[in-house]
Each structure stands twice: as C-alpha cells, then as structure tokens.
Amino acid sequence: MADWKSKLSVFANGQLVSPIDSFTPTFATKVDPIHSIEADNVGALFHPMTATFTMTVKAIGPSVALLTKLAIEGTKFEIHISEEGSDWSFKSLAFRDCLITSCNPSNLVVDGVPAATFSGIILGFTGKDDQQPAS
User: Fold this and answer.
1) Domain range enclosing 15
2) pTM listed for this prediction
3) 66: part of which helix (H) or strand (E)?
4) Is 70 within a domain?
5) CA distance 113 to 77
6) How far is the C-alpha of 120 from the C-alpha of 102, rounded, in Å?
7) How many structural domains does the chain have?
8) Neighbour count for residue 103 (Cβ, 10 Å)
9) Are 44 and 37 in contact (CB under 8 A)?
10) 24-53 pLDDT, tens digit each
C-alpha cells in the first residue's frame, strides 16, 4: 500500500523554495524520421533533447514570490524528491539547471487556496544520471 509521502519540490542554492502540487514534464526525443517521396523512414535526423515543464504551487507564504524572483533574475534551480516514501515508481528523480520561462498566478478564490502556474525549461537532465527506478 502506498504511503504517499514522496513529493517533488523546488530547491535553489540548496534551500527548499516550495513543494510542487502538480508537475508535468515534456520531453522531445532526439530523433526525427526522414522521409522521401519514394519511401518512409529512410533515415533519421538527430538533434539535442528538449525538456520543458509546467508546475503548479500553492500561493501560501513566500513561495510564489521566491519563484517569481528566480524567474526575473534568471536563477537556475533544481526539482527533485524532497521526502521519500514507497509510493513512486522512482527511487530518485532530479531535474537540474531549471529556468522559469513564464508565470501565471491564479485569481483569488473565495474558498480554497490560490495557486500559481510556472512553465520552464530543464537544461540538465539525463535519464541515466538523474533517475533511479524503484526496485
């Protein structure tokens, strides 16, 4: 049974900035097929991998202000598991050298907690070094 203790968090300069409520990474593969008028998949075009993300955090305390400051200053940060449990497919997961490319704070709400959505790019991510599947 899962214990739901694992969570991703933003860390800058070794300090916890904010836990993440929602995280959606997007990875573009390194290979595009090349087609000709005579046949499909006659070759491949290799290019660098692209990794982006969208994350949502609760707008409680200074977390959104700190993330906005990181965005404005162009400060790189890391996203990784901040608390370990047995509920994830990964034992460890790290996204290094992240930069925020856009911020979208939510409207104030009558009930519940407002949230802010941040989008960005991941400059340092390799599947080999930055993820370890659970055993």
Assistant:
1) 7-21+54-127
2) 0.75
3) helix 63-73
4) yes
5) 25
6) 7
7) 1
8) 16
9) no
10) 988 887 888 888 888 888 888 888 778 899
